[in-house]
Amino acid sequence: MKKLFSLMMLLSLLLPAVTPLAHARGETPQPGLVRVVADSSGGSAEVDFTALGYKARRLKGPYAVASYYFSLPAHWQPKEGAQLQLDLDSWGVDSATETGGLLEVSLNDVRLDTVPVTLNRAQTLTLDIPAEAFATSGETPRHRLKVVFENDEACGTNQHANVQILPESRLLVPFSVTEFAPDLAHLPYPIFQQTFIPEQAALVVPSQPTAAELQAALTVASGFGRMTGGDLPLALVSEDRLTPEIKESSQ
Length: 251
What we know:
By secondary structure, the protein is α+β, with helices and mostly antiparallel strands. It has two domains: 2-28 and 198-249, no CATH class; 34-177, Jelly Rolls. Helix content is 17%, strand content 37%. Strands 1, 2, 3, 5, 6, 9, 11 and 12 form an eight-stranded antiparallel beta sheet that branches. Strands 4-10-7-8 form a four-stranded antiparallel beta sheet, with no helix packed on it. Strands 13-14 form a two-stranded parallel ribbon. α1 runs parallel beside α3 (211-228). The longest helix has 18 residues, at 211-228.
């Protein structure tokens, strides 16, 4: 009994999210814009670069590259109709010069478009994203959005055009909800997916756990803590307190 009590005390120290999940969800507001409208079959998402973890990025001519990495929830299958909206500010070598180079934009090495940049003014570029551009070849679906800026006219001069990609830029992604088969060889994915949606997991133990069962829960919690750098909130839940709401909102 003493060992059981000690394990329970240790778990309560290592798992601060032992409190109800509804309370834990309200503790850390998500920065930036994340708007998801969905039901059991699918929906749409709008997320800006701030929510992806990025600030304003400056591209200085004659050549510069900016890359943005992000993940979508594993059960989302992007559909046709996705868009990228790039909010830009720019300044250049001469106020009389309108064209300040080209931006080539790609997602996972699929070119979306190459568009001219208008200097000395703010502008918004809206690019269509084909569904096949979301295909990834890695073990986990990590996407790379790449923006290349070229201003060849400034080569050999001391004057260069500048383009700033603002954090209000955003992705708009319609999706369907699909089943997926988790591969535990890729842990901590898919329990920890590093998406723009706050993640949490529930560690379920029997209603009357034994010392061995609590020891196993402690080992699992410690392992996920190491693999995720402590970024995955874990809640300890007994079977008799496992509600449908907890199942729906947790891994």
